[in-house]
Amino acid sequence: MLYKTGNENMIKHKKNFNPLVVLEHKLDDTDALKKQRETYIAILNHDLKIPTLAQIRALELLSSENLGTLNSRQQELLDLTLDSCRYMYGMLTDLLLIYKYENNDVVLTLEKVELLRFLEDSFKDFETIMKAKNLKFVVRAKDKCYGIKADKAHLKKAFNNVLNTCISNAFDGTEIVIDLSKSQDKGRINLSINSKSPYMPPETIKGLFSRYVTCSEKMDKVGSGVLLYLAKRIINLHRGDIHINSFKDNYNFYSIIFPCINECKFCACAQKV
């Protein structure tokens, strides 16, 4: 009796026939999808990201009044447009980074980073929104030096994404408290970001680190939903981890753990800089 499976013909007696499954995989379809993905990424980078950056630079030039004095309404309109362009640029950057992380196309350039100085530098990126919401950063550290090995550019993106989430959800006129501590027995640094913001149930927290999942319904915010997903990918790649705990008295805790560098020379150098 004749049996046809895939492109193979087998002539066997029915009573002696053992079932055989042949799986076919069309490489043409895979190549086509890959080309489509690469084209999409190229469009994001060249046709959207670069022109958006050009718009930002032009708006910054106008906003600085180098080309003429602005009245208050003109300044307000420019600032709103500039913030919108910066948001778009950040979202495009996040999407491109996610593509690289998911395709294992990221190479970290590790160097010694002192977290206290690193945090101070990150805070500068949020001065405008912190002032608008009347928020304040409070850093509490038991030691003078917290050293880790990290890629500064990628780590800053992760920190900024977490801080952006905290600031966006925080109640106006409150403090965002950052606690730093060391677990000497486990050789790690614990960084906790505490903010007074709306309670998030466990099912919401569970999905926050997934792609394109946002807590906008609970927080009454609009967002891309990729900030914490990307932050977790970056932190995990640095051999760290991040967790969120939310309490019904409207306090949220973002806990980040990193491997610690226990080097006295590094700490001494960091304090002198």
Explained architecture:
With 273 residues, the chain is an alpha+beta fold. It folds into 2 domains: 27-102; 111-272, Heat Shock Protein 90, CATH 3.30.565.10. It is 48% helix and 21% strand.
Quick gist of this model?
With 273 residues, the protein is α+β, with helices and mostly antiparallel strands. It has helices spanning 27-63, 72-102, 115-123, 127-132, 152-169, 202-208, 216-219, 227-237, 264-272; strands at residues 2-5, 8-11, 111-114, 136-141, 147-150, 175-183, 188-196, 241-247, 251-259.
Which parts are unreliable, with pLDDT below 50 for 5 consecutive residues or more? 1-8, 215-224, 263-273
Assign the CATH class of the largest domain: Alpha Beta
Q: At the fourth CATH level, what is the homologous superfamily of the largest domain?
A: Histidine kinase-like ATPase, C-terminal domain
Radius of gyration, whole Å? 25 Å
Q: Which key terms come to mind for this protein?
A:
273 residues; alpha+beta; 5-stranded mixed beta sheet; two-stranded antiparallel ribbon; 48% helix; globular
Draw up the topology in text.
Layout: E1 2-5, E2 8-11, H1 27-63, H2 72-102, E3 111-114, H3 115-123, H4 127-132, E4 136-141, E5 147-150, H5 152-169, E6 175-183, E7 188-196, H6 202-208, H7 216-219, H8 227-237, E8 241-247, E9 251-259, H9 264-272
